[in-house]
Amino acid sequence: MALSLDREAYYRRVKRLYGNWQKGEDEYANIDAIVVSVGVDEEIVYAKSTALQTWLFGYELTDTIMVFCEDKILFMASKKKVEFLKQIANSKGNENANGVPAITLLVREKNESNKGNFEKMIEALKGSKNGKHIGVFSKDKFPGEFMKSWNDCLSKEGFEKVDISAVVAYTIAVKEDGELNLMRKAATITSEVFNKFFKERVMEIVDADEKVRHSKLAESVEKAIEEKKYLSGADPSTVEMCYPPIIQSGGNYNLKFSVVSDKNHMHFGAITCAMGIRYKSYCSNLVRTLMVDPPQEVQDNYTFLLQLQEELLKELRHGVKLCEVYTAVMDVVKKQKPELLGKVTKNLGFAMGIEFREGSLVINSKNQHRLKKGMVFSINVGFSDLINKEGKKPEERTYALFIGDTVLVDEDGPATILTSVKKKVKNVGIFLKNEDEEEEEEEKDEAEDLLGRSSRAAALLTERTRNELTAEEKRRAHQKELAMQLNEEAKRRLTEQKGEQQIQKARKSNVSYKNPSLMPKEPHIREMKIYIDKKYETVIMPVFGIATPFHIATIKNISMSVEGDYTYLRINFYCPGSALGRNEGNIFPNPEATFVKEITYRASNMKTPGEQTVPALNLQNAFRIIKEVQKRYKTREAEEKEKEGIVKQDSLIINLNRSNPKLKDLYIRPNIAQKRMQGSLEAHVNGFRFTSVRGDKVDILYNNIKHALFQPCDGEMIIVLHFHLKNAIMFGKKRHTDVQFYTEVGEITTDLGKHQHMHDRDDLYAEQMEREMRHKLKTAFKNFIEKVEALTKEELEFEVPFRDLGFNGAPYRSTCLLQPTSSALVNCTEWPPFVVTLDEVELIHFERVQFHLKNFDMVIVYKDYSKKVTMINAIPVASLDPIKEWLNSCDLKYTEGVQSLNWTKIMKTIVDDPEGFFEQGGWSFLEPEGEGSDAEVGESESEIEDETFNPSEDDYEEEEEDSDEDYSSEAEESDYSKESMGSEEESGKDWDELEEEARKADRESRYEEEEEQSRSLSRKRKGPAHSSSSRRSSHSRSPGRSSGPPKKKRK
What is the percentage of the chain residues whose pLDDT exceeds 90? Predict the structure, then answer.
């Protein structure tokens, strides 16, 4: 297949080259012609000569000489290359038509000296302008016989050579749209390789504590670009590394791109990684520092480095000098952290394109070149030789921080980052838990738990190893700490809020007429009939012969009935004591006034002689019109109520750039109109705009988004972008705090009429298509999200629900899958959606947690006690443990109980008297076994006994004996229970002491019985001493038992 050459791009670019030459700025002013000769050298990756060829033709042409004269262009190349170049050669009658000189093609002879061709070119050079000074790229020196003979020929003629590398670089530095697209693609591939391969690999190495050399890791990155999954759909043959990846750690850092990864093992501290990927000859670059367990000082320095990069991006604007950009960044260092001035990298970046590093466009203190819109830079800021005060080993004492991105210079705003890899501390920090600390903490907790327990329980516990501490016990210890924090924090919060008094809103007073002159002069009024004034929404009724106006808002309801010959119209009014509706309460501006509660009118159904209509017609008309006016008034009031409290949003700033992140063919929920409509979602400067096919617009500003959620289509029939807002917005005449955009994946309904077969070809094809569609949609949504996050500089971050932690529950009427995200508990797929922000939650209470029940309920209590609690019903018991584990990991307090509580009453009690509530122990009333820590200790102790006490056969015998005995009375039983509860002293006695006590008690009881019989006081024979002795004698009947004392249940 013949290679194609973009003719238009060639003419466009060569025109730009000649245009700049004719302007005569800098070195262009001193040259009469330009000579570019390219030989063959496999070792040279970047050269200005080959870059110019790639820019003009899209390919590198080896052993080719290009001569640009004032009025002609000559290309000398092999026969094959000349055939290729014929695509751009002018036809005879069309010379100079494109505004550039005509092209002459010369074929290079392989075996001959090419003397004739050289002479033609020398002649052309001499005839161009003054014919003395030729512009060359002095750094480009190619080996080979062909190049040598041409250079000798030039030297013989005595041309003066002028280096034009810098001016040509400046000419080609401004990128066209096509070039920018290639660079964006290159940057995307670099980001993908870093995120999906390098970062994951480093995490694996750290987790497994592997020993891996920097050079080996760099090699694995180079191999990764051969795999399609990391290349965002690009052809692997078009992708190559700009330079071998540079990975450094362990105190040896050199923040340049000319170094190579050494053979030392990777150290788990600050790990700098620089990698650049070249796509279709266009370069990109990315630098990140991954930090394993960074101390606070390191984190602070890193945050400052990010601040410097932000400053650098702001300064990179059209028309600004490169030295001014450098100075502005250095000024920030001088002001804020002057001690780091000597540690900053010598330059802050360079222009990039076909060549990786453009030496003449470096951001340093001397460069006078001005930035232009469309230039692409690799910006790199770093601190080297920083001292880590907490470092103990030599490799820990010195560290470096280095970050870099590929950016595009814009007209006025800050430069746009093309490599959208997150770089905040939380994204590049790898935080490990120290095992020794964990062990110490757990042992300490264990020691505390053991204190104050009976010797038996203590002995049992010490036998158990630390590893046997159950997850439940670990959770309990953590929950105990949370309970203390919870009550203290709530107390402090309520004290702060005490000063803020709530203003109770008075009911709006509706006045019908401001003065009597506005009353209508209708004949109905004079005739003492009911008249409805629609303009002022007023009903004028005759009361004791006087026309009295009542505003429609005062009427609660009306009813009409026909009884015999009469029609009755009954009008009920709002008054103190009557319910005003669910949320309105009895609020009247003047509750002490006299109110009319109801009025009933009666009219005859019989037509009087001479009248055309029956008298009751007026009542019937009045009934109909009042209903109409009332409906209209209520609709208007409802709309006003919806608008009430709506916070005025800023205006959306539209970005007219066509490359805005955009998603098409989405549905919006809630619907704008009755019928659902498709539309597109586009990200602008400060917010999103959804435009439906009908032209309806919904704007959502970034600063009004509380949670941005992305629900992928794994296991779901829709893929969703959900926005939970801080303040409600109005559309479709209603206010909404949740707006979502979704698209359906595959068929939601299945045709059961089809005779389906497992291996039906159509079905297998349809499944394959659906899988591909899911993958395509997921990729489109992910790209959109990444672009939006880059656009907002990660101020807006999308959260993805953790499906593995999801559980089923019914927050509304139907059961759905509730899934936690990093900051909320959500369900986006069902409507209405369910979103609870974890930061707003005070505690979680589980109700109806009983062994025989399959489900339990979950109550979410908010920090704002005036807010209604949220209930999630019918959660399967199997989910209880995972939910507890998740809540515990989020540092949220939870409690559980067997019965359902009246939460409206509880919250009202707390709000009415918060001080009293916390004085009585606060939320500890929800703890099982009542309040106080003693109860908890007792409870956990009894559990430990239950778990570890393994009764022997003798114990079973003892139980049988005990069960055979019949107790004489209930009194005996209750007495025994009192004694068996025992004191602390008693619980510590061993078996022999108890036996001795039992014998003694038996002797005493026999003596007492004899004495009492002799006195003949039979009534007083029964007593507590007797009952206890009879019980104790039952112990003494079996002296052969070897096991411990009877087990006592703690209450």
Answer: 44
Least confident piece of the model among 150-154, 217-221, 349-353, 490-494: 490-494
Whole-number pLDDT of residue 112: 65
Compute CA distances 45 → 259, 375, 662, whole Å. 16, 22, 37
Specify the pTM: 0.53
Residues in the chain: 1051
Number of H helices, E strands in the chain: 28, 39
DSSP 3-state of 202: helix
- Specify whether the CB–CB gap between 440 and 421 falls below 8 A: no
Residue 746 in contact with residue 652, Cβ under 8 Å? no
Separation CA 456–CA 583 (nearest Å):
59
**Continuous H helices in 872-932:** 880-889, 903-912, 914-919
Helix (H) or strand (E) holding 573: strand 566-573
Token pair for residue 889? 């990991």
Judge if the upstream peptide bond of residue 832 is cis by omega within 30 degrees of 0: yes
- Are 191 and 421 spatial neighbours (Cβ–Cβ below 8 Å)? yes
Asked whether the beta carbons of 293 and 431 are under 8 A apart, the reply is yes
Q: Which strands, in side-by-side order, build the sheet including 718-731?
A: 697-701, 687-692, 678-683, 662-669, 734-744, 718-731, 705-711, 798-799
- Classify residue 805 by its DSSP letter: G
Cα 459 off chain centre by: 49
- For residue 584, give the 3-state DSSP assignment: coil
- Burial (0-12, 13-18, 19+ Cβ within 10 Å), 238: middle
Beta bridge partners of 603: 567
> 814-871: per-residue pLDDT in tens?
999 999 999 999 999 998 999 999 999 999 999 999 988 999 999 999 999 889 999 9
Tokens (6 digits) for 912? 């009415």
Residue 239, sorted as left (phi over 0), alpha (psi -120 to 50) or beta, turns out to be beta
The residues with which 572 forms a beta bridge, in sequence order, are 557, 598
Cβ of 547: how many Cβ atoms within 10 Å?
Answer: 18
Helix axes 7-23, 165-173, angle to 10 degrees: 130
- Ramachandran angles phi, psi of 537, nearest 5°: 50, 55
Average pLDDT, the chain: 81
- Rounded CA gap, 661 and 682, in Å? 6
Helix-helix angle 471-497:880-889, to 10 degrees? 60
153: left (phi over 0), alpha (psi -120 to 50) or beta: alpha
Look at phi and psi of residue 845 and say left if phi exceeds 0, alpha if psi is from -120 to 50, else beta. beta
Which residue in the block uniquely carries the two structure tokens 């362990």?
250
Cα 942–943–946 angle (5° rounding)? 85
Rounded distance, CA 258 to CA 356, Å?
11
Q: DSSP string covering 480-536, please? A: HHHHHHHHHHHHHHHHHHTT-PPPPPPPPPPPS-SSGGGS---HHHHTT--EEETTT
- What does each C-alpha distance from 935 to 195, 941, 942 come to in angstroms? 51, 10, 11
Alpha-carbon torsion (593, 594, 597, 602), positive or negative: negative
Task: Please state which of the ranges 50-59, 468-477, 510-519, 692-701 shows the lowest mean pLDDT.
Answer: 468-477
